[in-house]
Amino acid sequence: MKLGVAIASDNALPSAFVVMRGLEKSIKLAHEFGYDGVELALKEPDEMPAKELLDLLKKNSIEVSAISSGQVFAARKLMFTDPDKEKRAELVKSFCGFIDLAAETGCGLVNIGRVRGSIGTRDKNEAEKLFIDMANTLCDYAEKKGVTMILEPVNRYEIDYINSTDEGVELIHKVNRPNFTMMPDVFHMNIEDDHIGEALIRNREYVRYVHLADSNRHAPGDGHLDFDDIFSALGKIGYDGWCTVECLPFPDPETAAKRAVAFLRHRYI
Ligand code: LER
Ligand code: MN
Questions:
Q1: Does the beta carbon of 152 lie inside 6 Å of ligand 1?
Q2: Centroid of ligand 1 to alpha carbon of 241 (angstroms)
Q3: Whose CA is nearest to atom 6 of ligand 1?
Q4: Which of 151, 67, 147, 150 is nearest to 108 (CA)?
């Protein structure tokens, strides 16, 4: 397994779920603290020119674990289930840029978290049709670039659609594309799933990437999640991908990033 940390540029909203901000500084610190990679939480695909980014990664021996898209929802209010055609076209444009970047950086993964959008008072089938159409459009483009789209079940207090991993798998079956799968986040699983370890084992086929935070969304080890159970389940299913820390920057970004490595390295990863 490889250990990553979620980062964003300086202009990310204060509410963005990342550990450190400032791409250049965070890539340097990620290496210094002992991470293998960074997950880039981006609003736009070109927040840093690709060449500059690739040089910076190489210089610091850091890989990109995935491109994440939460800020496309939080800052730009774009979503898969938006009935507005123009907004959906804007989303396709940004996601094609994310897919290009995922191919260029070699991570080959683009996350779909809260950007899937909500259902609200609409008929669920109507919203779901919009989601599935968008997923197919993006999978068509991603397939040509060797990129996989990873759906993240997110807890009910943040979004009203696809909260548990079982719901994620149900939707993955409906989309039914080889490059459309899932990325569980143990913070959301702790709220929505019956049992974290059992749900990971049950849905093993679709565990392509993992987000880590503790029960209070602080650094792993600072709350009461059973990480022995989580990593024992990941071991049982032969998971060998990225585990990326996506916790709140508490008490401050650098301390959170360091505490997460201190807890996870050697014990689990
Ligand atoms: C949001 O809570 C989250 O976990 C992100 O990774 C997805 O937007
Ligand atoms: Mn997450």
A1: yes
A2: 18
A3: 113
A4: 147
* CA 143 to ligand 1 centroid distance, Å: 24
How much is the pTM? 0.98
Q: Which of 202, 205, 208 is nearest to 185 (CA)?
A: 208
pLDDT above 70: percentage of residues in the chain:
100
Sequence ranges of the domains in the chain: 2-267
Q: Express each pLDDT in 188-232 by its tens digit.
A: 999 999 999 999 999 999 999 999 999 999 999 999 999 999 999
Q: How far is the CA of 226 from the centre of ligand 1 (A)?
A: 20
> How far, in Å, CA of 69 to CA of 130, rounded?
18
In ligand 1, which atom is closest to the CA atom of 158? 2
Q: Which residue, 206, 135, 130, is CA-closest to 170?
A: 206
Structure tokens at 72: 């496309």
What is the residue type of 195? H
Q: How far apart are CA 4 and CA 47, in angstroms?
A: 20
- Judged against a pLDDT cut of 90, whether residue 15 lies above it is answered with no
How far apart are alpha carbons 11 and 23 in whole angstroms? Answer: 10
Q: Which two tokens stand for residue 1?
A: 């397994």
CATH architecture of the region 2-267: Alpha-Beta Barrel (3.20)
Residue/partner pairs of 82-91 with CB below 8 Å, 24 or more apart: 82/117, 82/130, 83/130, 88/130, 88/134, 91/115, 91/134
pLDDT in tens, 69-117: 999 999 999 999 999 999 999 999 999 999 999 999 999 999 999 999 9
